[in-house]
Amino acid sequence: MKRHLLAVSTAALLAACASAPVVEHSKMTGAEIAQIDAVLKRDFRAKGQAKMTRLEPDAVQRECNLHADNPPDSVARSLQEAQLKTIKYPSDSLLGDWKNGRKIAESGRGMQWNEKPANPGGGGCYNCHQLSPQQTSHGTLGPSLKGFGKTRGYGPDMQRYAYGKIYNAKAYSACSHMPRFGHSGSLSEQQIKDLVAYLLDPKSPVNQ
Ligand code: HEC
After folding, report:
1. Are 66 and 23 in contact (CB under 8 A)?
2. Which tens digit of pLDDT belongs to each residue from 135-162?
3. For a pocket test of ligand 1, which of 4, 100, 128, 199 has the largest count of ligand atoms closer than 8 A to its C-beta?
């Protein structure tokens, strides 16, 4: 059976630090969505920088909810095209410093209610991905990224894909459960470049 997370913003999940409501279903009706929405609004407490607006799905999340994260191909394609347009690529190199990238990947800080909005947050990539052999623990919601560059290639196309995927995962998979780090503003351009280096620098532990 497939498990679907209701697509509330990841910021809300990170901020509330509570487990997301998990719904077992193959299709969602408008009434079911409204019911879940009401429970979220009832139980979520706005605090610090975590405001109620974090519960508002944007257009793509709304569409994914309606289709239980499995929209028809034509819908998925047009959602992805719209998300692809949101990606802002740096004008210079896409490869930052893998050592910083590692720290960002292994940090789960940022966006919590009690943190200052200006403080740089982490990516928390370990929550869903295996990255380097030295990692003590990792989640498995996402695929293992161990050896990412070594197996997929280190070239400019792969760098552009990795940057875009981290910036806005929904540009490549409309109803992806991976947070849209650049799009949401939770990671800066430099932080995303450092993460690209962590994935794609041949010297990075990810590729050892
Ligand atoms: C909440 C879980 C989650 C988090 C956190 C997360 N990801 Fe993902 N990621 C996924 C899932 C699920 C997929 C595969 C489905 C898809 O394409 O979206 C994925 C796919 C990817 C891919 C594409 C893999 C491929 O084979 O093409 C890359 C690269 C990636 N993630 C990097 C990252 C990085 C770097 C971070 C931290 C900044 C991160 N992810 C954080 C869930 C997550």
Report:
1. no
2. 889 999 999 999 999 999 999 999 999 9
3. 128
Q: Is there a single domain that holds both residue 24 and residue 49?
A: yes
Say which amino acid occupies 1: M
The answer on 12 and 35 residing in a single domain is yes
pLDDT digits (tens, 9 = 90+) for 162-200: 999 999 999 999 999 999 999 999 999 999 999 999 999
7 lies in which domain range?
Answer: 3-84
Ligand 1 atom closest to the Cα of residue 125 is: 37
**CA–CA dist 10, 27 (Å, integer):** 22
Q: Could you identify the residue written with the tokens 């210079």?
A: 92
Chain centroid, CA 153 distance in Å: 22
User: Has residue 58 been placed in a domain?
Assistant: yes
* CA 120/CA 135 separation, integer angstroms: 22
Backbone phi and psi for residue 10, each to the nearest 5 degrees, phi listed first: -65, -35
Give Cβ neighbours of residue 161 (< 8 Å, ≥ 6 apart). Answer: 172
State which H helix or E strand residue 66 sits in. Answer: helix 59-66
Q: Is the CB of 166 under 6 A from ligand 1?
A: yes
Beta bridge partners of 23: 4
Query: Distance of alpha carbon 155 from its chain centroid, rounded?
Result: 23
Q: Give the distance (Å) from ligand 1 centre to CA of residue 155.
A: 19
pTM (predicted TM-score): 0.88
